[in-house]
Amino acid sequence: MARIFGIIGGGKMVIECINHILSFEGTAIPFVIYDPDMDVNENLIEYCYEKKIHSFGFRKINSPECIDIIRSAAPDIIFSMSNFKIIKKEMIEIPKFGIINFHNGPVPLYRGLNVVSWAIFNDESSYGVSWHYVDEGIDTGAVIAQTMFDVDANETAGRLLVKCVIGGLKLFREIFIYLYNGNIDKLNQNGPQTYYSSKDKPENNGVLNFNWPFQKIDRMVRGLNYIPFKNNYMYARLLSDSTKIIVNEVSKVDSVNSNYPPGKILKLDKEQLYIKCSDGIVSINELMDDEHESLKPFDVSRILNLKEGDIISG
Fold first, then answer.
1. Is the dihedral of CA 255, 261, 267, 268 positive or negative?
2. CATH number for the domain including 72?
3. HEC sequence for 10-66
4. Cα distance between residue 128 and residue 218, in whole Å
5. Is the model's pTM score more than 0.85?
6. 249-286: per-residue pLDDT in tens?
């Protein structure tokens, strides 16, 4: 049985999914289309060359040039992974059996962008991923498969994305045989719906407010820590956008007298930075600058001209 599959995307899953597709007899992948501005797997282009798969970088995937490439390949199915562009009707209608998208959230509860961050902001205890058909809406197409998993108490956006990739690959291997044979069930989305757009920002635009309780500060930091992935959203920061001080990890200090106003710097030396919040003491444990170079607490003093006893406003 001959099947032609196209790929749109350049994330961590693409090579693994291509390997699985090519393990089936008679399959062909004539193109991989990726966005050169996104987090493209650095080995993808070389891998495609070795496998004799044509790879194309398009910032506008609905451009006539991109449409022509896809139409000339006449794919049966297109898989979309780590693709953050809206696919328009003209492209949707090209593949014989449709376009199937991997979404790193459980639809319809978490549709849209940066949804792993919002799951952490919202203090979810479980989360999931979905494979669904693409229609003219955003993450609204019929679901093929979905799986859920636990969210740990110390989960960061990056670690949650790792779980999403692992869960998505496992699902892909389970559903591909049915797609290959042309026998797959579709389930219309139902239940509570939430959509997050690129315009949706966390409270205070990621700047830590020490009038907040520790748990809220912690969720903000964890929800904006995308390590080891590229952060295309925003970072948790001290003070304002101009400070260039990024916070990647905090913890709560219970053994220090907390009878101080929120925002007061209680300790600032080479190794430790303690700041009072509304219900305790925050230890700022991991810092970096806008070049992603690690910083020590002492660097905060130098860059922001702060010292023990100063108040950081939220």
1. positive
2. 3.40.50.170
3. CCCCHHHHHHHHHCCCCEECCEEEECCCCCCCCCHHHHHHHCCCEEEECCCCCCHHH
4. 22
5. yes
6. 999 997 666 689 999 999 999 889 999 999 999 999 99
* Domain termination residue (choose one: 146, 173, 196): 196
Q: Is 314 exposed, middle or buried (0-12, 13-18, 19+ CB in 10 A)?
A: middle
Nearest alpha-carbon partner for 129 in 98, 161, 153, 88: 161
Query: Can you tell me the distance from the alpha carbon of 44 to that of 10, in angstroms, rounded to the nearest whole number?
Result: 7
d(CA 77, CA 114): 26
Strand partners, 143: 132, 187
CA distances from 225 to 31, 111, 197, 229 (A): 33, 20, 19, 9
Q: Is residue 309 part of a domain?
A: no
For residue 260, being part of any structural domain is answered with: yes
Q: Which secondary-structure segment (H or E) carries 118?
A: helix 115-121
Residue pLDDT, tens place only, 158-216: 999 999 999 999 999 999 999 998 888 888 999 999 999 999 999 999 999 999 999 99
294 in the same domain as 158: no
Count, residues in the chain: 314
Confidence band for 97, pLDDT divided at 50, 70 and 90: very high
Based on the domain organization, do 134 and 157 belong to the same domain? yes
Q: Can you give the residue range of the structural domain that contains 231?
A: 203-304
Q: Please give the pLDDT value at position 313.
A: 74
Among the residue ranges 19-28, 90-99, 139-148, 303-312, the one predicted with the least confidence is 303-312
Residue 185 has a pLDDT of 81
HSE (CB half, 13 Å, CA atoms) of 179?
28
Report which residue type is found at 125: S
CA–CA distance, 242 with 80 (Å, rounded to integer): 36
Q: How many C-beta neighbours within 10 Å does residue 8 have?
A: 27
